[in-house]
């Protein structure tokens, strides 16, 4: 069972009205909303493929924007942690190295996921009509679904522990919630794209 009193003490360190914290929450929530809206618009209209001259060019452009937004998010996350107090009992070598290990595992999942999917596979290429031949089942997809999202969440969790930051832990929870909502929308939509592909192949 969750120790409610301990959770209350932990988040008593967090000032959720702090401007930096609010900006971090907004940047976390904005990113998956942005790429889902843009990618679905592209899938429906092909407007970006026409503007950039090809689906690949449009996908690479969106990928670059997503990477930039992720850098902004990480900066806001870090600044929000710096502006709020540390949890003194966690400001020790054991917590630091535990966080470092968690971040390393998260980085492994993110990098291996990118290598397995490629750039267009990672950055919503299927919404641009750039479909993969088959579902990727190699590592890290053999270990868990959506390893890119969970790996990214683990990086933020580890980063928060390294800084002994209750604010960071709360923001990590926001990251996890944002990604969970994104997965609920992306999963069925992507499956439908590939169902339509299979239907088209059978009808030929």
From TrEMBL:
- GO molecular function annotations of the record: phosphatidyl-N-methylethanolamine N-methyltransferase activity; phosphatidylethanolamine N-methyltransferase activity
* Example GO biological process: methylation
What's a GO cellular component annotated to this UniProt protein?
A: endoplasmic reticulum membrane
Q: Catalyzes what? A: 1-hexadecanoyl-2-(4Z,7Z,10Z,13Z,16Z,19Z-docosahexaenoyl)-sn-glycero-3-phospho-N,N-dimethylethanolamine + S-adenosyl-L-methionine = 1-hexadecanoyl-2-(4Z,7Z,10Z,13Z,16Z,19Z-docosahexaenoyl)-sn-glycero-3-phosphocholine + S-adenosyl-L-homocysteine + H(+); 1,2-di-(9Z,12Z,15Z-octadecatrienoyl)-sn-glycero-3-phospho-N-methylethanolamine + S-adenosyl-L-methionine = 1,2-di-(9Z,12Z,15Z-octadecatrienoyl)-sn-glycero-3-phospho-N,N-dimethylethanolamine + S-adenosyl-L-homocysteine + H(+); 1,2-di-(9Z-octadecenoyl)-sn-glycero-3-phospho-N-methylethanolamine + S-adenosyl-L-methionine = 1,2-di-(9Z-octadecenoyl)-sn-glycero-3-phospho-N,N-dimethylethanolamine + S-adenosyl-L-homocysteine + H(+); 1,2-di-(9Z,12Z,15Z-octadecatrienoyl)-sn-glycero-3-phospho-N,N-dimethylethanolamine + S-adenosyl-L-methionine = 1,2-di-(9Z,12Z,15Z-octadecatrienoyl)-sn-glycero-3-phosphocholine + S-adenosyl-L-homocysteine + H(+)
Q: Please name one Pfam family that this protein belongs to.
A: PEMT
Lipid bilayer topology = Multi-pass membrane protein
Q: Which InterPro entries match?
A: PEMT/MFAP, Phopholipid_MeTrfase
**Residue ranges crossing the lipid bilayer per the database entry:** 20-39, 51-75, 95-117, 164-185
Please give the chief subcellular localization of this protein.
endoplasmic reticulum
Q: Where is the signal peptide?
A: none
Question: What pathway annotation does it carry?
Answer: Lipid metabolism; Phospholipid metabolism; phosphatidylcholine biosynthesis
Q: What is this protein called?
A: Phosphatidylethanolamine N-methyltransferase
Organism encoding this protein: Cephalopterus ornatus
Q: Which gene encodes it?
A: Pemt
